[in-house]
Amino acid sequence: MTTIVQQLQVDRLQVEVYPDRAIMGVQAARQAAAHLRQLLATQPEVRIIFAAAPSQNEFLAALASTPDIDWSRVTAFHMDEYIGLSDRATQRFSAWLTRHLMQRVQPGKVHLIPSQGDPDTICADYLRLIQRAPIDMVCLGIGENGHLAFNDPPVADFDDPQGMKAVQLDEICRQQQVNDGCFATLTDVPSHALTLTIPTLMAAHRLFCIVPGKNKRQAVSTTLRGPIATTCPATILRRHPGCTLFTDSDAFQEPEHG
Q1: CB 145, CB 153: distance < 8 Å
Q2: SS3 for the chain, per residue?
Q3: What is the distance in angstroms between the CA of the first residue and the CA of the last residue of the chain?
Q4: Quick one: 126 exposed, middle or buried, by C-beta within 10 A (0-12, 13-18, 19+)?
Q5: What is the CATH number of the domain that holds 225?
Q6: Per-residue confidence (pLDDT) for residue 256, from 0 to 100
């Protein structure tokens, strides 16, 4: 029996709606794992960029428990990191992703973004690693303000000349980190971060976008029905030839008619 609630296409974007985030995470992981196995059958290495956020919990848990994946031939990256957090700070995205995925599956190569050091140097060094070969897959989410990685509306650029950059975080984005339970108060959330830019993410061959929860309802609605514009950066996903948006009934809202 199928668990999918609704399936639709918006421009080039495939959308799958599931009854809850648990089922959504399992189904997204099943499709991502199938694609990963397919790639591993035809090429020596698979390069994947992961998002680090609570919205990815169910997806990453299901992916990590999927059998018969040769993770030793996977090179893993992540898409953003706070600037200035201590190396011991548990809120670092590198630390979060290590706990939720890397320690469990042990990819052959893991490239983490440092949170301390000169931002320009970190971006240049990390981008060199990213650009050594094509990125096969990106597993990402959408922020409450429609951001992709830390490309918030004020700094998002669909034709960004930079592949990675330092940015000032939008207040809505910073508040989301509090809403997600990552920080106790808004003042605890760093004001600046490093992020892969939208062209870097969009250059990947296949995108799996996982977006559950009622807090994402407005972002999902605008992504699917708003104009393709940096006021909601995620709308650019509608132009990607190989992106699937996995969402749940809490986040997906039927359009109003009349």
Answers
A1: yes
A2: CCCCCEEEEECCEEEEEECCHHHHHHHHHHHHHHHHHHHHCCCCCEEEEECCCHHHHHHHHHHHCCCCCCHHHEEEEECEEECCCCCCCCCCHHHHHHHHHHHHHCCCEECCCCCCCCHHHHHHHHHHHHCCCCCCEEEECCCCCCCECCECCCCCCCCCCCCEEEEECCHHHHHHHHHCCCCCCHHHCCCEEEEECHHHHHCCCEEEEEECCHHHHHHHHHHHHCCCCCCCHHHHHHHCCCEEEEEECCCCCCCCCC
A3: 34
A4: buried
A5: 3.40.50.1360
A6: 62
Spatial distance between the Cα atoms of 71 and 107, rounded to a whole number of angstroms: 5
- Domain interval for residue 184: 6-66+73-248
Domains: count for the chain: 1
Q: What is the amino acid identity at position 218?
A: Q
Q: What is the mean pLDDT of residues 209-224?
A: 97
Q: Residue 130: inside a domain, yes or no?
A: yes
Mean pLDDT on 96-111: 97
Measuring CA to CA, which residue among 165, 164, 96, 83 is closest to residue 129? 164
Q: Residue with structure tokens 């605008």?
A: 222
d(CA 61, CA 7): 24
In a domain, residue 254? The reply is: no
Take residue 133 and report the two structure tokens written for it: 């070969």
188 in a structural domain? yes
Residue 148's nearest CA partner among 173, 116, 113 is: 173
Identify whether 256 is part of a domain: no
Residue 166: which pLDDT band, with cuts at 50, 70 and 90?
A: very high
